[in-house]
Write a structure and sequence with these properties.
Distance between the termini: 19 Å
Low-confidence stretches: 14-60
Structural class: alpha+beta
Number of strands: 10
Number of helices: 6
Order of helices and strands: HEHHEHEEEEEEEHHE
Radius of gyration: 18 Å
Shape: globular
CATH class: Alpha Beta
Strand content: 15-25%
Oligomer: single chain
Length: about 260
């Protein structure tokens, strides 16, 4: 991304984002989630009954697929304090927590993201959701609460801007390359307190690391090599980010990544 392009993107984004003082993050388009919902998208063979909300009813849907009570949350943008501090451990596994997780899934889907951390919706807890079909070791959709990651060594080579560019819902509309570990062992619990453990490689491992960083108060742009950090700082200044109060609402505001 050249400096000129960076400035243009910044100018465009300034008029797209919602600015508010009453506020209640992942990846490039080429890596957006590969799976669609059967209820919404699947065709049917001749003679089969098409499943839908109308035919099966809301009570049989997952919480994030329901339309009666799951709100879409505002997504916080770089500069909101909750994004830049370590999130707290979850200690209470109750209905309130499970509603929060359902809200996160719904917000992630509305934003066309493959991951979302609780600080990105203004909640300072160690929780992130994900959806990613291109892997074999974990459910394609899930939640990690109080996660622990064990990583392979990160290469010190220069990150490839075509193959290793990340994006973030809390840094909307921008992409920069970053080296990540190719392997991650992921451990934690789900919204019911049940243990979750799996291994992730490639882009799935990248998603895990990206979301985990949010829980420690870091965004991917905080880790850029000097060449890309310089461009990020110019974009941040042009956009007026770095202070509290900027959010965007998936499904209502214009999608900053153009989905």
């Amino acid at each position: 991304m050249s400096d000129a392009v960076c400035a243009i993107k910044a100018q465009e984004l300034r008029f797209r984002l919602v600015n508010t003082q009453n506020c209640p993050r992942i990846f490039p388009q080429q890596h957006e989630r590969a799976c669609g919902r059967a209820l919404n998208n699947a065709g049917t063979r001749s003679g089969e009954t098409k499943m839908s909300r109308e035919t099966i009813g809301e009570d049989f849907l997952a919480p994030w697929e329901r339309t009666d009570h799951v709100p879409i949350r505002q997504i916080t943008v770089y500069g909101e304090p909750v994004l830049h501090q370590r999130a707290a451990e979850v200690t209470e596994f109750d209905d309130q927590l499970r509603q929060l997780v359902a809200d996160m899934h719904a917000t992630m889907d509305a934003a066309h993201g493959v991951g979302l951390a609780a600080p990105q919706i203004g909640v300072g807890l160690r929780i992130f959701t994900y959806i990613y079909a291109d892997q074999d070791t974990a459910p394609e959709r899930g939640v990690l609460i109080n996660p622990v990651l064990t990583l392979s060594k990160v290469s010190q080579a220069t990150p490839d801007p075509d193959e290793e560019a990340e994006g973030c819902l809390s840094v909307p509309g921008l992409n920069f390359p970053l080296k990540r570990a190719e392997y991650a062992k992921v451990e934690g619990v789900d919204e019911f307190g049940k243990p979750v453990s799996f291994e992730a490689t490639g882009w799935f491992a990248r998603i895990m690391q990206h979301e985990f960083d949010h829980l420690d108060g870091f965004l991917y742009v905080d880790k850029l090599v000097p060449r890309w950090d310089k461009r990020w700082l110019k974009a941040k200044k042009a956009l007026g980010w770095g202070v509290a109060g900027t959010t965007w609402l998936p499904g209502t505001d214009e999608d900053p990544f153009g989905h």
